[in-house]
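Give me the fold.
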Amino acid sequence: MKGRDLLELFSLAAIWGASFLFMRLGVGEFGPFPLALVRVAGASVFLMPLLIWRGELGALRAHWKPIMLVGITNSGLPFICFGLAALAISGGLSAIFNATSPLCGALIAWLWLKDRLSAVRSIGLAIGFGGVLWLAWDKASLKPNDAGVSPALAIGACLLATLLYGFSANFTKRYLTGVPSLALATGSQLSATVFLALPAAWFWPARMPGATSWLAVLLLAVACTGVAYVMYFRLIAHIGPSNAIAVTFLVPGFAVLWGGIFLSEPLTRAMLIGCAIILFGTALATGLLNPTRRPASAG
């Protein structure tokens, strides 16, 4: 991996880590549904000119039906889930649960696409989900807060989002392989916008959100969704998907950092231990860490 690619990898992790901060800043005044709508709509406005400029609009038209499903399951519904979670738990904790997305992807690939799971990968799945259960058990209070959301509900929403991410990744692999990445990114945000329009209008806040909330949500849309998609797909092209997925391991650290700096969110020992267990299991389950792999011989 070249130094430039490594810098972009860390920059992407920092941007995606900031998304949990921006959700926390904006969801209180917007609510989960309007927050998700503004996010995907803003990303669509950012990405559409790039799509037209690169001449890939035809690819979007040709594959709009499966892309629409990806938009709902990879953006629309997960963004609602994480917005709901932001009402009750810290951004760092949401990011830790979000890091289980590759675990869910590996599990769904095994169940649906019949991908072979080696013994090491199976152990990784067990370790990773064990870490999720342990951390969830430690944090899952059933008592709702002033927003009417309990930590248990917030954690459940995060885990539902990761299941949706896992499904979307495998659906994309099966039905959208070869489709230009920018067409997929833009189309998914457009379809999520259509999907969220009516429920967001129904739940639109009676009082106009303040400037801070609007700034947070616009940054969430443009930087953490639009720009981040471009960076992520560029990384996949430069260093390959197996290396690009390493960003998953960096996002929780940045989410905790931004939350601590700007919102004074605490980092507890349970979060550290749970995150370490989840990431270790994820590394095994995805093949990023394989103790049985033989080192390449010199010469």
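The first helix runs from residue 3 to 30.
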